[in-house]
Amino acid sequence: MLPWGHAAFGYLIYSVYSRWKIGHPPIGLAVFALGLGTLFPDLIDKPLTWTIPLLPYGRSLSHSLITFALIVLVLWTLIRHPDQRTLVGAFTIGYFSHLVADSIHPAFTQEYAGLGYWLWPLTSVPESEPRSFIEFFLTLEATPMVVFGGVLTVVGLVVWVYDGMPGIKDLYAEYVQ
Fold first, then answer.
1. CA dihedral of 16, 25, 40, 109, whole degrees rounded to 10
2. What is the rounded average pLDDT of the residues 154-164?
3. I need a labelling partner for 113 at 20 to 30 A (CA). Which of 25, 29, 59, 95 fits?
4. What is the pTM of this model?
């Protein structure tokens, strides 16, 4: 899934969670922590595979549930203030939503070997060749997953606007008065 699809997927999940758990749409910095979480695995794995070929595959180190659990455990242990824990919770939901979103295609196509990244390095992942981000976007095709991500992005944007554009609205209210 492309970055904006991951952000939309995570936002939709967090919007439902926020209404259920907190009783209102998402607000404040939690939306930015969520956004960082939705992109975090790719911000680590893609550069370390494509640009600096240290990892074997674009879904390995930070796409692993092992790494996910370690990062969340460290954050939860270090951060004690309730407001900051809200940020950790939003980041965690975003991060996990990324892992779930990346598993949709392999699960539906029953290519379960494509889910090996969930337990990397205990399980294997395919090897990939280094390439540039520009090359990736120039060779992108309108596959069903790309189209699904586009539709998800539109739905996510509509819900975000319906929610009152949290994050942006909060920054505007804080700094433009």
1. 20
2. 96
3. 95
4. 0.89
* Whole-number Å distance between alpha carbons of 102 and 87: 23
d(CA 116, CA 118): 5
Tens digit of each residue's pLDDT (9 = 90 or more) over 103-158? 999 999 999 888 989 999 998 887 777 677 677 777 778 888 888 999 999 999 99
Structure tokens at 123: 């399980």
Output the CA–CA distances (angstroms, integers) from residue 150 to 15, 119, 134, 147, in the order listed: 19, 28, 19, 5
Q: How many CB atoms lie within 10 A of CB 116?
A: 20
Could you give the C-alpha distances from 165 to 49, 77, 88, in angstroms and in order? 34, 31, 20
Lowest mean pLDDT among 50-64, 97-111, 148-162: 50-64
